[in-house]
Write a structure and sequence with these properties.
globular; 73% helix; 248 residues; mainly alpha
């Protein structure tokens, strides 16, 4: 299929991911607004506090990823993540020209997804929900958040290599396995780095916050969510190639 159509599929797929995933973050923050928490680290509501909310948020992201993979995987491969495209390019599983086009499409789609959330939910999606943007949590340093993103994306990419890239992988399970990996990683890292593991997912809310409110996140915290996921994904791709050997 031609590159333009595949890029359009990546744009729509990433838009869906941001709309569903970041939408769940916004709604959780709006529901939690005004509630009393024991510490600034706990922003949640309900009996389980923040952990209960992170289960819901991680499930939203995981289900969104699985949905897009099954809907558009046969069209574009459903990368919907610049780190994945770049990692596949680094091991010569994806052309450089296509990688650049995919990353641009993914970032545009993420921006559209964040814009849709603002127009549908209203100003509180920005003022209270921050459009679902990612940032290190209170008490978490930039380096801790960066390491969390590296490790989290390493795990995600390792699963992708095993269930979607390896030609010996059983057919039909990629969406479930990758969605489950996304869910598990966000549960573990959400209250540390925000659990982005995807540069486009963080770019969408940050670019819209810059446009709508002049936020400086794109040049303060956003680099964490570019460097961390790309490093983690590339390391995982090379690690899998090393341990699996030639799998033709």
């Amino acid at each position: 299929m031609d590159l333009a159509r595949r890029c359009f599929a990546e744009l729509i797929g990433t838009m869906i991911l941001v709309f569903i995933g970041c939408g769940s973050v916004i709604i959780m923050l709006m529901l939690a607004a005004g509630t009393t928490t024991s510490t600034s680290f706990d922003i949640g509501i309900g009996a389980l506090g923040g952990m209960g909310d992170w289960f819901g948020i991680s499930a939203a992201f995981g289900l969104a990823v699985a949905t897009v993979i099954y809907a558009l995987g046969t069209v574009s491969g459903a990368h919907i993540n610049p780190a994945v495209s770049i990692a596949l390019c680094s091991i010569r599983k994806f052309p450089v020209k296509d990688t650049i086009a995919y990353v641009i499409a993914q970032c545009i789609g993420a921006g559209i997804g964040a814009a849709l959330l603002f127009f549908i939910i209203g100003p509180e999606s920005l003022s209270v929900g921050g459009l679902g943007a990612t940032a290190p949590f209170p008490g978490i340093s930039i380096w801790q958040a960066l390491l969390a993103e590296i490790v989290g994306t390493f795990i995600l990419m390792l699963v992708i290599m095993g269930v979607a890239v390896d030609k010996k992988a059983p057919a039909g399970f990629a969406g479930l396995a990758i969605g489950a990996a996304v869910t598990a990683v966000i549960i573990a890292t959400g209250n540390i780095s925000g659990g982005s593991i995807n540069p486009a997912r963080s770019f969408g809310p940050d670019i819209m916050r810059l446009i709508l409110s002049g936020s400086d996140a794109l040049w303060t915290t956003y680099p964490i969510y570019v460097v961390g996921p790309i490093v983690g994904a590339v390391l995982a791709a090379f690690f899998y190639v090393f341990v699996a050997g030639k799998r033709e």
